[in-house]
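step: validate -> pass
step: tokenize input -> pass
step: predict -> running
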Amino acid sequence: MKAYLVVVCLGVFALMALSNAIVPVLPAFANGAAWEGAIYAAYFLGAFLSTLPGGILSDRYGRTPVIRTGLLLTVASGALLFCTTGPVPVIFLRLVEGIGAGLFIAAGMSYVNSQEDHTRLSGYYLAMLNVGLVTGLAVSGWLAVRFLYPALGIGVFTALSLMALVTSLFFREMPTQPLLAGAILQRGSGEDKNDLGEMADLIFTHGRLWYSAIILVGITGVVSSLYPGFSGMTADLLGYWIAAMSVATIITVLAVSRFPIPPRAAIRWSAALMIGGVILAYVSPLGFIVLGALAGVVMVAQMSVLAGERDRQGLVMGLFSTSSYLGMTILPFIAGIIAAAAGYYLAFLFTAILGGTVALTICSLSRCPPHPVR
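step: predict -> pass
step: emit ->
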């Protein structure tokens, strides 16, 4: 189990580093906030399209082939992105890269959340995810300024993703859930119908949580995608500030995963505080730190709620990742259009209002269910 956890954590680190390598150098690939928002969002559109199928496939055929397929798509798209210019092909390759990441994330999160010690392990997994985001931002921005080649960071982290792919070939999952070969072979068309029924039930049961994932994760994407054109910072300085958001997330996911908290109440108050974080980001990059810290609390709380669905973690984590990536897809794109048409002030205001809607809807205004993170 420990060896397989290493594969999962190494893979998520490499994929996240590559996904963020383009962020500090977005102006080099496109002109204007709308194109930059489209390039940023294309990755998350691909992940949005693939996470739910990835979760279902990992339940049915095992997580290992899904993880390897995700890494293979990531390496192929990253290699082509390294030598590609022009917004349209870049958008397409970011879409393919996102599809690979979505497959990997769904299977990896399914593995972590199916373990007995899921809360502690989710802290490690989310920490490695955010370490990857930090590394991608900081190293890519530094390389672009030092060597005057915007795509150099993409090349470096494509090589790291290749290393993760090769490593995955030497390890095989030892499942703790009933994922036996005989059970897998018996799944047929009746199981397909069962998947749809279970999916509908999960969507209805956790509807408010899915909405919170769309909005609260999407808010961090909006601020990250708007800042390159909004701030006028150099690529290295911009990378450091956006990386600070992920550092704050790392700290909070490791801390929160070790202490019991009521998860829905944590989501509610984090959403309310995110309103102030977005407003602060408009006047100071310190807003990145506030938003990153709150995002860490939110993600651990959301995964804790969903860990109660023990039987179909692939499907549950597929829906969770789909919701998160939907937010990262549509919110930066919409905010980019608003910024291009009406200015950055209204784009930030729109984003802050969305955070308020989660605070009002995640649970009752009078109280939240006292379900502690364990």
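step: describe -> Residues 195 and 250 are 34 Å apart (CA to CA).
step: cleanup -> pass
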